[in-house]
Specification:
Blueprint: H1 2-9, E1 20-23, E2 27-39, E3 42-51, E4 56-61, E5 71-72, H2 76-86, H3 97-110, H4 113-129, H5 134-155, H6 159-177, H7 180-187, H8 194-210
Helix pairs in contact: 2-4, 3-4, 3-5, 4-5, 5-6
Amino acid sequence: MSHHSNTSVSYHTPFKLNQQVVYPLQGVGKIISIEERPFKDKKLLYYVIYLEVSDMTVMVPVEKAESLGIRAIVSKEEAEKALNFISEEYEPVPTDWKLRYQMNLDLLKQGSVIDIAQVVRTLYHRSKIKELPILERKLFDSALKLLVDEISYSLGLRKEEIEHMIFSKLEAEAPEKVKPSHASSLADEEEPDLEEAFDLEEEEEEEEEESFDY
């Protein structure tokens, strides 16, 4: 047991103290300490991450960080690529709101900056065709916040500037991207039943809570 402890203390961690990282569905966080804590009959090394956007501190086992999707903030080049991606053409989205919601939620869970940008782009243009249902509005707000948060850190610009840049790119190309046939099919779509929507939301929240159960 003492041997394991010594190994843990000298363990070479992928992320370093004070490094900014991205936690999927949560946003940018800062590693404020790397600590060894007892877990069952052994000791594990943990990242202690402070998430500014939610004013919350979480502990994540170093060995599980990668599987949870925690990653470094993207480079300036990747951040600019994500901004340009927003104004590119996109494929039509499913007319079934539940399927569309789940697809976008899965993209946010994957957590790459391009995945997040895709959710923002898809739901923004969807909202221009028809008002978003409750869950999709919340998903858009979450995705936008995640995207603004990471890109602002990457480019070293204020969040207000990044949000303005994102909407400028979305609005610049919006009229050309709405395909008439696609718009027509979406216009006939039924709004989600509120009870069903909240059932999905509860499932989503339960999944998120499980990520912090260590």
